[in-house]
Amino acid sequence: MLFCMASLAGSSVVWGQCPELEGSLTQGGLVWGVVAPGSRATLDGEDLDVMENGTLLAGFGRDAAATAELVVTGEASCRQTLAIAPRNYNIQRVEGVPQKTVTPSAQHLERIRREQVLINAARAQQLQRPDLLGAALTGFEWPSVGPISGVYGSQRYYNGSPGRPHYGVDVAMPTGSPVRAPAAGVVTLAEPDLFYSGGTVFLDHGYRLSSAFLHMSKVLVRVGQELRAGDLIGEIGASGRATGPHLDWRMNWRNRRIDPQLLAPSMPLAPVP
């Protein structure tokens, strides 16, 4: 249970108890709670989406600061300083990556720019679907079951050169293994061969929370298609910048990269491929 700070001197707002938040108050975490419908909520001054039933959610990036301020004003107002737990991240070294994907040529850079336009357009969509998000927040499932070969936040070195931190969780399974929707959503991107991520699908869960599925050998959905948890999305592969078949599952809340593993249950036991 979270408690709010005392009211500011001279303020006409009566501050009360903040909502109880579910989820993970940690770097890479997502939290949600319920406030009075019609309330306004901000996180460090940024307006949060508040659904008709009062549900709000907020996420924290890989390198989020140690604290964040949640303010709710309306029928029941509160102010709370949230303590964001820090995390330690692994360093991984990946050798054998095609050099063209480590240092792309001018021709490849032009392709990357074109593909980034598609990615940005998909991420810019704002799907206001409380039914989808409500179904998602009841629990995410693993889109593929198998050994976890890469984790969120790890820093990767490709052929000795530092790359961006890894923002997803990798599941290593043979090419052709099914990839299924971990929760309800609408497909906003379905591309068979992007330069970096190969076969790629974005699934919007509503209110700027989305999943991405990378390196697939087959994409079996289309943009605009509505999926329910368990629906088939595609098949695992090693397309794009990958050294072996696996699924890279990523999640975004707005422009924050969050950790899918914090929203999923423990990985079920599966035979090592």
Automatic annotation (TrEMBL):
Which SUPFAM superfamilies does UniProt cross-reference here? Answer: Duplicated hybrid motif
Which InterPro entries is this protein grouped with? Cell_wall_metabolism_enzyme (IPR050570), Dup_hybrid_motif (IPR011055), M23ase_b-sheet_dom (IPR016047)
Q: Where is the M23ase beta-sheet core domain?
A: 165-260
In terms of superkingdom, the source organism counts as Bacteria
**What PANTHER family does this protein map onto?**
M23 FAMILY METALLOPEPTIDASE (PTHR21666:SF285), PEPTIDASE-RELATED (PTHR21666)
Name the chain's protein. M23 family metallopeptidase
Give the organism the record lists.
Candidatus Marimicrobium litorale
